[in-house]
Amino acid sequence: MVPDKKLTDDLNELLNLQDKDEELIQKLGEFMNLLEISTLDSENIKQIRTTLNHALDVKINNHSVIDQIKTVSLGNLDKLDQLDQLEILLTTNHIDSKQANKIVLKNVFLRSMKVIIGFLFVTLGFAMIIMPAPPYFEMFTIFYFNDNDGVTLMDLISLIIIAIGLYIIVKSISNFKSYE
Question: Exposed (0-12), middle (13-18) or buried (19+): which is 101, by Cβ within 10 Å?
Answer without folding.
Answer: exposed
